[in-house]
Specification:
seven-stranded parallel beta sheet; 13 strands; alpha/beta; Rossmann fold
């Protein structure tokens, strides 16, 4: 008797696949319920090799030539559509708006379900603020394609509400961006790597170095720290300018950088800090509605949170009593509030304990059940993978 191969899901994501933990978790969850998965990312001339994501998860990256400009999106989606002519799938799971055209083409051509996973309120991201032509093009694209999707997923209630309001679609399934639960022990990974004294607290920011995330103010805050050092773990477009600002202000002893860390190793770095920052600026609706995965990573490592007072983050901080809300304004005030928290041992420990306790509820093991239920409703695993003729 011939064994039928597993149903195949195409999982496009417009990035180099080094640090997209959400896409990795999605692929892994689909493998658990019997699908095979092909993740389709982006490759630039200077892209580094990618590590395998596990058995049954295939990795493809499409060369787009340049790291900037509109043509890279067109190139990616064209190549994605061509790939879809050769690969028979049971469904396509588009991660964000910048993969939706190519994904939608494949779904329509093969008459298969299209799942749209909106990680952001895409057209309201900081780089698009004030750029009405680009916003209009992306907005028309989303409006035209989102109603063709068989299901829409997003990362928090506020963005789900906005998508319903803007496009008059059924309410998206909210699947929050959380790490799988694990008990994480305290480490000295950051101290050992950077040579930081045990007498200094470590104030951690981890994630992309992008516009609108309050990073410039976090750096300026370094000038007012007396017993702490800021450590920024990650990379992105602002990396060079942020490092130059630190050097110009002579803050090298108070603000330190660690490049991108593979997500498989990130928890060891998180667990060596004392407090975790997510101080987004209110410069865009996307920021105001954000629920960054970093806050759940901080909590799992037992770090009290210091977050902007926006609805989704505030709801977590207030409900679970895991830290403080702080507007990213005056750097001196920011430094004072954070170091006051670190000095108040009773309050600090209460937040740390609450964070670890909350992490037992707020984790991917709980969230992925909604993804699995959705796929069982929309896509059958009893769908043979095959290669279409040219």
């Amino acid at each position: 008797m011939t064994t039928r191969p597993p149903a195949h899901i195409l999982l496009p994501a417009f990035n180099e696949l080094h640090n997209d933990y959400r896409v990795f978790r999605t692929a892994s969850a689909l493998r658990e319920i019997g699908f095979s998965v092909t993740v389709v990312g982006v490759e630039y001339p200077n892209s580094k090799p990618i590590a395998p994501w596990g058995k049954g998860i295939h990795m493809i990256r499409l060369g787009v030539g340049t790291t900037a400009g509109k043509m890279r999106y067109l190139s990616y989606n064209y190549q994605l559509a061509q790939l879809g002519k050769k690969m028979r799938c049971a469904g396509v799971h588009a991660n964000d708006l910048d993969t939706l055209i190519g994904s939608g083409y494949i779904a329509i051509r093969q008459k298969i379900p299209l799942i749209y996973d909106s990680h952001e309120l895409f057209i309201e991201q900081p780089p698009l603020v004030g750029r009405w032509k680009e916003r209009m093009i992306w907005g028309l694209t989303e409006r035209g394609m989102i109603r063709r999707a068989d299901a829409v997923i997003t990362v928090c209630d506020s963005i789900a509400d906005q998508l319903v309001k803007r496009y008059r679609i059924p309410r998206p399934v909210v699947i929050r961006n959380m790490p799988p639960y694990r008990s994480i022990k305290r480490t000295n990974r950051i101290r050992e790597r950077l040579g930081i004294s045990d007498s200094l607290w470590i104030i951690l920011y981890q994630g992309g170095l992008l516009q609108g995330l309050g990073l410039e103010r976090i750096i300026r805050m370094g000038a007012y720290l007396r017993e702490s050092v800021v450590v920024i773990v990650g990379g992105g477009p602002l990396e060079t300018s942020l490092k130059q600002a630190v050097s110009k202000k002579n803050l090298d002893d108070r603000v330190k950088f660690i490049p991108h860390v593979p997500f498989q190793e990130l928890a060891e770095y998180t667990a060596s800090a004392d407090v975790g920052l997510s101080l987004l600026e209110g410069c865009s609706l996307n920021n105001q509605y954000a629920l960054p995965n970093k806050i759940f990573e901080y909590m799992m490592a037992g770090l009290p949170l210091v977050c902007s007072p926006f609805p989704e983050m505030a709801q977590i901080v207030n409900r679970y009593k895991t830290g403080i809300l702080l507007s990213p304004g005056d750097p001196e005030m920011m430094a004072k509030e954070i170091e006051n928290l670190l000095r108040e041992k009773t309050r600090y420990q209460r937040y740390a304990d609450n964070a670890r306790k909350a992490a037992r509820k707020l984790n991917w093991d709980q969230e992925k059940t909604r993804l699995i239920d959705l796929y069982r409703q929309k896509i059958s695993t009893n769908f043979a993978e095959r290669i279409l003729p040219e």
